[in-house]
């Protein structure tokens, strides 16, 4: 069963490296916990998932869309934009640096797919050499309550893209 509109987002801990504009790009800081219920209580957030950092659709379309629309999302009252992937926080930190996410998008690892599994939004990409990953999706959360769920059922970025999310805000 997948997460539905009006559900409470599952309590989960992701891992990320907070943006530090003075950090050396080659630094490898340790990721810290990002506890969703603590961080998103009373806030409006977008959580979008990519099957794999540095993969074509994620790198060329999905993530750049959210980075480019940062101001439009803020103008609609969004407090946090979080990109997750079923990888560790170190990889998501490298991805954030490569795409100059800065403080626009929190790049967080769902290393063991616990959050993605709790949402009911995993897929088996073992045949592609990637193992269990999240589906490509986007969720609008307002004070921990799910207001929109857009899950891609095929290739490409439509229901989980920033244009679909902006239309639902």
From TrEMBL:
Catalytic residues, chain numbering: 58 (cysteine sulfenic acid (-soh) intermediate)
Keyword Glycosyltransferase: no
GO molecular function: thioredoxin peroxidase activity
Keywords: Antioxidant, Oxidoreductase, Peroxidase, Redox-active center
Entry superkingdom: Eukaryota
Domain Thioredoxin, chain residue ranges per copy: 3-169
Single biological process term from Gene Ontology: cellular response to oxidative stress
One CC-aspect GO term: mitochondrion
Job description of the protein: Thiol-specific peroxidase that catalyzes the reduction of hydrogen peroxide and organic hydroperoxides to water and alcohols, respectively. Plays a role in cell protection against oxidative stress by detoxifying peroxides.
Family of the protein in this entry: Belongs to the peroxiredoxin family. Prx5 subfamily.
Protein name: Thioredoxin-dependent peroxiredoxin
């Amino acid at each position: 069963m997948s997460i539905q509109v009006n559900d409470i987002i599952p309590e989960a801990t992701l891992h990320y490296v907070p943006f530090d504009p003075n950090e050396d790009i080659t630094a490898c800081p340790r990721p810290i916990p990002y506890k969703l219920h603590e961080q998103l209580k009373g806030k409006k957030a977008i959580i979008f998932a990519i099957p794999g950092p540095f993969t074509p659709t994620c790198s060329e379309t999905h993530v750049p869309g959210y980075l480019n629309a940062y101001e439009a999302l803020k103008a609609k009252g969004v407090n946090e934009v979080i990109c997750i992937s079923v990888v560790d926080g170190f990889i998501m930190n490298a991805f954030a640096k490569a795409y100059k996410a800065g403080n626009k998008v929190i790049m967080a690892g769902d290393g063991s797919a616990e959050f993605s599994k709790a949402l009911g939004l995993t897929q088996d990409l073992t045949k592609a050499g990637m193992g269990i990953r999240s589906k490509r999706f986007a969720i609008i959360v307002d004070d921990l309550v799910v207001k929109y769920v857009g899950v891609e059922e095929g290739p490409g970025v439509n229901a989980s893209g920033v244009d679909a999310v902006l239309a639902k805000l």
